[in-house]
Amino acid sequence: MKWLSDDRINHLRELTVNPDFSATKYRVKSELARGGMGTVYLATDTELNRDVAIKVLNSPDLTTDLHERMIREAQIVARLEHPGIVPVHDVGVLPDGRVFYAMKYVRGKRLDEYTAETDSLRDRLRKFQAACDAVAFAHAHGVIHRDLKPQNIMIGSFGEVLVLDWGVAKILRKHESASEADTLLLPGKSKSNHKPGDTTDGTIIGTRDYMSPEQARGEIDRLDERSDVYSLGAVLYFLLTDRAPVAATRPRTVNPKVSKAAEAICLKAMSADADARYATAADLSRDVGQLLDAEPVSAYRESVFEKAARWAGKNRFLILLVLAYLVMRIILIFTSRS
Amino acid sequence: MDPDTDIGGAQQRFPQTNQSAIVRARSNDEEVRQRAFATILESYWKPVYKYVRLKWQADNEDAKDLTQGFFANAFEKNHFASYDASKASFQTFLRTCLDGFVANERKAGKRLKRGGDHEHFSLDFVSAADEFALHPAAPNANPEEYFHREWVRWMFMLALEALRAQCRQTGKGIYFELFQRYDLDEEETVSYASLGQEFGIEPGVVNNYLAAARRDFRRIVLEKLREITATEEEFRNEARSLLGVEVK
User: Fold this and answer.
1) Contact: B9, A204; criterion CB under 8 Å
2) Is-above-0.80 flag for pTM?
3) Which residue has the higher pLDDT, B143 or B111?
4) Burial, B77: exposed, middle or buried (Cβ in 10 Å; 0-12, 13-18, 19+)?
5) B53 in a domain, yes or no?
6) Active site residue A273
7) Dihedral through CA B171, CA B176, CA B181, CA B183, nearest 10?
């Protein structure tokens, strides 16, 4: 075999590593992120002349199960049409055998990056509530994310919030009809009870700091919406304290500025007992909304003083107006007497 | 997407790997051990020869003897069986053993006699010497980096040879010819259309054949790497250094 120059070696490296988009309408511009299953590239759709993000399976040499898992991911995301979930435009197989899917390219920052630049707790909570709404929409369609964390939530350039990376999402059995199950199988593949992307008990999927106790124990069959609620609670913990959850450390211990109500919401969502958590992400979102509006939250029973303080905080302008009126009256009384 | 996400968990549901030559080198079965040794020898002899010439300033004959002697000694004493993947990569282990071997030989003032004590392996030292002369290392090149770079080059060359043989055996010689012309030839820039014209096929077919050859090349590179790494972690680390990326 002829000697290979450094240039040829680099070329062969690229061939070995980079997906072959030559027969598609996409031209890769750069790599955006690399994960366990796939790599996301920034590419141009040459037909529509727009940027897209393309997720490509890392290697064509792995088991078919991963190929099918990837297509399943695309199909799951494609059926979740919501402003908080990145739309999928296209799915297919590259000439080199790798499965890919193209989705909207979101310009912006990950929630952890956004948090590093945003001190306002109010702004952080608004973004969090939007993420909860996107997850609640997925839950309403029978899909749980199973890997919610700040790194998988994106804040777009116009402030829009998008939940990303549905690579380990699961369709809950109670929502899965026979026809839906059929559509998630690849043509030519046998229909077995164990569908691609399914995992069995004992398999751990997710990110340790943000996964529910039942998920960490690998109790896959027990996972439902409340597991995502736990992860959202862990994300809230991060937003309140600027750090990933630490066992047995309450948010107010890390950051005393956190209100008792905000802490209560976080701890309820992160309860070790799934039954004690919010039943859905929508319930969690509702409580966060109440907190933002200075209304009572379901997770925290206020004392009379706290109720009064909250009312005062919410009606500060009215109180100032009344005080100003009273001061004026007193002044008028004194000036009229003298 | 984040690399922290764990998929697989305690049960590690990743594809099974081919058993590596490093693992097989510990076998009690002499035949299995010999085959494993042959794989290690094939994968490393040329970088070893070049490294000895650069680091130890050995002339061609000396480097040939030291290379032969090193592998013969390692096989005879079953050195590779003592490799511990938790301490270093196999490549680092082999290079450390090599340095120790050459240092001992030099210290003892031995001049290995060609065709003497050590078993002779059939190795193409002529091509290795030509490459060393025609493509010399940069002045002040770091010998360890040079060894790694030459190993990468050699791995790709072996993979290409295997691809050529596979294409020939399966009657797909044209796949390799196209791959050679389009991806390996440095002197001529060709297009799918011009290749199609030359080989009497449609440009779309050129694309399909090239895609298949590239896919097979990638598979062969990773298979070869699996053969000479002992653990999944080492495989991934070496894949990262060979290809410059994570391979899962």
Assistant:
1) yes
2) no
3) B143
4) exposed
5) yes
6) no
7) 160
